[in-house]
Specification:
185 residues, alpha/beta, Rossmann fold, 7-stranded mixed sheet, two-stranded antiparallel ribbon, 5 helices
């Protein structure tokens, strides 16, 4: 079994095992996408639009937990990882959670519970959304989630990974291999 590596920060080079595939789909975020998302976030930091010590990273489909772990390693105040699959939750609790007291694991449906995380007035949410590919067969569910996030937290930063060519989003996006990353900042 392979491993995923933290790319930067206090946990740089830390390895976590790859999470077990569900129904033949590993569905972990490729290193190139992870690097790109955090480069976009770093751009927000350098421009003064985001202060990591007040930022809460929320991975709505965490799978391996690597994005949340990368976030706390790079200085985010905390990271909340949502995962609905019990096997993956057990994996996260065993392999990822012990690495930082700033990681919070939620065995909850992200569509129903994303807005239950409390925050201080000065804090900002940074969402990473990489839903299972099957969700893109009916993109209305993702669109509704994006809409609800914007209503609940208008100052939020949202990064969406998609296997689909952008046709219904007007936001900035970049292509990385077979994936696209949309920036809703």
């Amino acid at each position: 079994m392979g491993s995923l590596i933290v790319q930067a920060g206090t946990l740089k080079h830390k390895r976590i095992p790859m999470v077990e595939s569900l129904k033949g789909h590993a569905n972990f975020t490729p290193a190139l996408i992870k690097k790109a998302v955090f480069a976009m976030i770093e751009s927000e930091v350098l421009s003064g639009k985001l202060h990591l010590e007040r930022a809460i990273f929320i991975d709505l489909f965490s799978g391996s937990g690597q994005m949340g772990l990368e976030a706390v390693s790079r200085g985010f105040k905390s990271a909340h990882l949502f995962e609905i699959d019990r096997t993956r939750i057990n994996f996260l609790l065993k392999n990822v959670s012990p690495l930082s007291e700033r990681l919070f694991i939620h065995n909850k449906d992200s569509f129903r519970f994303f807005d239950k995380i409390e925050k201080e007035e000065e804090e900002i949410f940074v969402y990473f959304i990489d839903p299972p590919y099957s969700f893109w067969e009916v993109p209305e569910k993702i669109n509704k989630l994006l809409e609800r996030i914007n209503i609940a937290n208008s100052e939020s930063k949202i990064y969406l990974q998609s296997p689909e060519e952008p046709t219904h989003y007007t936001n900035k996006y970049s292509r990385f291999g077979n994936n696209y990353v949309f920036n809703f900042s």
